[in-house]
């Protein structure tokens, strides 16, 4: 006699509660959109170390043409493009003039000294921006061999520690005039230069006319997963290619990443205005809350604020984190929120609601 046992599947009902994560620690946390992924998957690639990747070459030409410059070089990061620029313009023992809040001084691991033997002359600017008069005063006399030889002037636009502040075009032009008078090259760390272009309604070519080298980032604000470009003359970029190799920045079939950069430049620049608007809305709400001590001016997508003295910054961050909202402290009692293309209108509503009921 045969026995057959029928086994019926048993389903365990589970209740899944999905918590919306709202990540506002930086505009670098974005993930490629479907359109960007499609562009990456269909990219034609080669070996960029031999300059034979057609998509990288197309990205470099596109970026150079956008700013009216002769050439560009694709690199893994904005730190590398800045460090290449410092190395290009200087010799060991020289000095670069920059603001005390500059990224090249604060956030590049001491690379100016490690990679190029440079010291930094730090200026006490306003929200990361100094004046032409300050810059001229900081130039060391070239015949006074006891002091470092001033070799370069560098600005950052927008300013990271300055809360996304945008440089005044006329002030930069005045600095350029002073640089020319003293025979100094002029570099801009344009990690968020497109935020400045959109906010100030300025021309990219105006920057190309002013600066000897420009660093632009594709993974801040524009949504690409990786990559920055250094722009300059053909002669400069030929030299930069060698420095990139020395720094370990040579990549092979990097056209897959470059395709994301092309997509970002074609689709994600004008929409930066949405990030700026969201940041201003958040700032307006924060300024009305009794537990907020100060909200710094907001021009672009970075918002810096302080809580009242009786509230610990770590406690404030932890309370938000418990609600699925991530922000970071910047030290000195300051907190930072950065809006970006993955920060939706629905997320904005949730953030505002949670902020209002936090304390």
Which superfamily, in CATH terms, is the homologous superfamily of the largest domain? Type I PLP-dependent aspartate aminotransferase-like (Major domain)
Radius of gyration: 24 Å
Element string (H = helix, E = strand): EHHEHEHHEHEHEHHEEHHHEEHEEEH
- How far apart the termini lie comes to 73 Å
- β-sheet strand percentage: 15-25%
CATH architecture descriptor text of the largest domain: 3-Layer(aba) Sandwich
Beta strand count: 13
Tell me, rounded to a whole number, the average pLDDT: 94
Percent of residues in helices comes to 25-40%
Task: Explain what you see.
By secondary structure, the protein is of the alpha/beta class. The chain has two domains: 34-267, Type I PLP-dependent aspartate aminotransferase-like (Major domain) (Aspartate Aminotransferase, domain 2, 3-Layer(aba) Sandwich); 271-356, Aspartate Aminotransferase, domain 1. The protein is built from 14 helices and 13 strands. The protein has helices at 34-41, 54-67, 78-89, 103-106, 111-116, 132-138, 169-182, 193-200, 204-210, 234-246, 255-267, 272-286, 313-322, 345-356; strands at 22-23, 71-75, 94-99, 119-123, 149-156, 186-190, 213-217, 228-232, 292-295, 302-307, 325-326, 328-331, 334-338. The strands form three sheets. A seven-stranded mixed sheet has the order 2-8-7-6-5-3-4, sandwiched between helices. Helix 2 (54-67) runs parallel beside helix 11 (255-267), helix 3 (78-89) crosses helix 10 and helix 6 (132-138) runs parallel beside helix 7. The longest helix has 15 residues, at 272-286. The protein is globular. The protein starts with 21 loop residues before the first strand and ends with a helix.
